[in-house]
Amino acid sequence: MTPALPQVIGRYAPSPTGDLHVGNLRTALLAWLSAHSTDGELRLRIDDLDPIAATRGSEERQRADLARIGLTFDGLEIRQSERLERYRVAIGELAAADLVYPCFCSRREIREAASAPHAHLPDGAYPGTCRDLSTLEAQQRAEGRPAALRVRAEGATISFSDRNFGAQRFVVDDFVVQRNDGVPAYNLATVLDDDDQGVTEVVRGADLLAGTARHTWLRRALRLSDVTHAHVPLVRNREGDRLAKRDGAVTLTDLSDLNISPTRVRASMAESIGLAAPGENPSMSELLDRYRHEDVPTSDTMWDSAEELR
Ligand code: GLU
Prior knowledge:
Blueprint: E1 9-12, H1 22-36, E2 41-46, H2 56-68, E3 78-79, H3 84-96, E4 100-103, H4 107-115, H5 135-144, E5 148-151, E6 156-162, E7 166-172, E8 176-178, H6 186-196, E9 201-205, H7 209-221, E10 228-232, E11 235-236, H8 252-257, H9 262-272, H10 284-290, E12 301-302
Parallel strand pairs: 1-2, 2-3, 9-10, 11-12
Antiparallel strand pairs: 4-5, 5-8, 6-7
Glutamic acid (GLU) binds next to loops.
């Protein structure tokens, strides 16, 4: 008898800092289809770490919009703002292993330092200015501004395999795990949350591929379980930039105002990933029947105008 495969647990983790647009919703749809195509579950996480930008109003509207396109969530839900202690414990573990250090650099200092070429670091990477400060130097710098905490990744090369985009290899710089206002950084929170939610597969936008190398570095440093990664293509505006609220009618509410229903929006998202024919409105179970991991496209889609959906 073949042993049963462990259950797939996916997640969708929106930041409640505004309404979801069709690009966000399409990623959520793909995460749902991916998990459910293997009889798995999809969990919801509220990435509300930013105390200023994240609001309960946005969260409620995002939940409502996800439901309006037919997405359901199972099992344990996590709200990042309630888990600060968990993040502090992990930072303590990294500190005990000498894997973090305080960084006093301002944004400007980082920009200037990062613009000089650094042997094998990618453009814009933090070059390690504060990595080897003496205690005295650190004390002097601390008088000027509070410290962020950075990991000692020291330009490690991290390889991982992505289910859609194949073999990946990135150099990881000393990224921030705690901002200088004391708020834990997304990169830290996301790996701990995935682990605590029992996540086995992460489906998210391809703009986060390089971020995944950082997460892989952290997961190894904290001895967390590996997950499957499946990045999905983005929806872009006519200029080729990642879709954003300023690109016109791009949220379900905007589109409803133009008499375009959530079902019609879902059909258009499905069409853009090869799961529906033009003009067709497949149900969630029809989409699930058609979905195959291997057929998920890797090229981005251009969002022209809501008018095309009428
Ligand atoms: N809250 C993040 C975002 O909306 C989540 C990214 C992720 O899926 O890890 O971009």
